[in-house]
Amino acid sequence: MTGSGSSRRSGRVASIAIACTVTGMLLNACSTGHHRSPNLSPAPQPTTPTQPAKQYPPITSTWNMVTPSSGPAQEAAQFAAETEVASDLYTLANDYSPDLMRRYNERVVGTYIWSENSWHAAQTSRPGTGGTLWRVIDSIQIDSGFRVTLCDFDSPGLYDIIDGTPVHAPNDKKSLSAEWVTVSRTTKPSALDTRDASTPRLLVTEIQSAVGNQVPGTLCDQYAPEPFIRQPPEPVQSGQK
Fold this sequence. Notes:
There is one protein chain. Helix content is 27%, strand content 26%. It has helices at residues 2-27, 71-91, 98-105, 116-122, 217-220, and strands at 60-65, 128-142, 145-162, 165-167, 175-186, 201-209. Strands 1, 2, 3, 4, 5 and 6 form a six-stranded mixed β-sheet that branches. Helix 2 runs antiparallel to helix 3 (98-105).
């Protein structure tokens, strides 16, 4: 009985061995364990490569004049506009920049200083792109220097980057701000200084709303550039700075 059982077992093992030898030459399918032949493995599933997130240029700000001026009035207008541009470049930047903060603060009296906390307070939860346009409406001489009227326009527009796409708020108006900026030639200290300057130089000494409690468009919409361009920038190409 035992011998018979042993023979049956031996025969079965022998039969399996022969079958594996024959079929193995054809299919290479016999092996120990649960390994599969590479030829019988399932075809690899195609994978979608992860696309790098699109990068967009930082927010920009520019300026121009409705009517060109000359002499001290032009000089004051340019100084006021460049100061407003410096303010936007700092407060709207995606990253804190001490250099941008310094460029603005050296142009204004201490009343209008921007700090690092000012930058943090202006930030949203998303990075931004696009830009603003400041336009000089007029530059009028007053006792303390020149009062420059400026309008800030949402052109080419300010955009939040959401899921790699610039998104503009649907209800934003053309005009963002209307301001009177007083530019004086003075020795008063700037926001960076602790004492008076040795010689007079241009400095922004006052900034106030040009429309009071009214919306900026009350004054500025009539001076908006035509055509009014609102277009997000193209993504930055790989290797482009």
